[in-house]
Known about the structure:
Blueprint: H1 16-40, H2 43-69, H3 85-110, H4 120-145, H5 149-178, H6 182-210, H7 220-228, E1 233-245, E2 248-257, H8 263-278, E3 282-289
Parallel strand pairs: 2-3
Antiparallel strand pairs: 1-2
Helix pairs in contact: 1-2, 1-4, 2-3, 2-5, 2-6, 3-6, 4-5, 5-6
Protein name: Cation transporter
InterPro entries: Cation_efflux (IPR002524), Cation_efflux_CTD (IPR027470), Cation_efflux_CTD_sf (IPR036837), Cation_efflux_TM (IPR058533), Cation_efflux_TMD_sf (IPR027469), CDF/SLC30A (IPR050681)
Organism: Pedococcus bigeumensis
Amino acid sequence: MSGGHSHGGHAGGAHRWRLQTAFFLVAGFFVVELVTGLTSGSLALLSDAGHMAADVVALGAALVATRIATRPDSTGRRTFGSYRAEVFASGLAVLLMLGVSVYIGIEAVRRIGGTPEVSSGPMLLVGAIGLVVNIICIVLLRGGAGESLNVKGAYLEVVADTLGSVGVIVAGVMVATTGSAWWDTGIALAIAVFVAVRAVMLGREVLVVLGQHAPAGMDPDRVADALAAVPGVSEVHDLHVWTLTSGMNVATAHLMTGEDADPHAVLDEARQVMRTKFGVEHATLQVEPDTHTGCKEVTW
């Protein structure tokens, strides 16, 4: 039995300074945008602030993941480490994004029939600052996005939030030009819908990981066939493949072999198949002679 112990997907440690800088920039601007949104009466600012809050959580999760990846387990009980902290943080971001979307929707309905007062000046100023902050973060994170999935995830979050900043600027321009606060409400609803859709998509990914489904793009039948094609393997059973956290897929399987098969050669070849064909660095494979009758598949 063997386990590959090379954990990939957390190369973000080398780019931790990029994540830290982006985190403090986005967190600082979130506070400014939230306060300005509340004082100016702009729903567009508040909806974008909610999206910014989700970005703060995403960047924080990436920072936590890069720290945990290099921290040894002192308890001896976390046999898979604490890599799923990133997944739980993503789940929190989903709840936060959905909560913001619902709040904006309720506020928009409450404004029906009323004449809300919205200050376009603060909207334009804060929207422009937000755009600058997002562009700086995009430049920072782009340098590490090609090497780390954590950095890439944070990079995509900031890219998406740039659209929110553009929406705030458009809303500010239209309110200043037309004098109608409905532009603010309409664009706020558009941002809220955008955030809700992204939250649902991210939520599905979180549930897939927590439900230990087979990773996206990895067909268990194809994995079984590839392992069965290894010279000396006569049968593959008790196969499980799942995702521990982003960029870290793991697998377990039992490989039955003929009497003349070299178990060491079978094991080495099977691990190579999992690594090269399916990108699974951590595969726990149990090699059993076909004369062994003690192995019975469990019922789940």
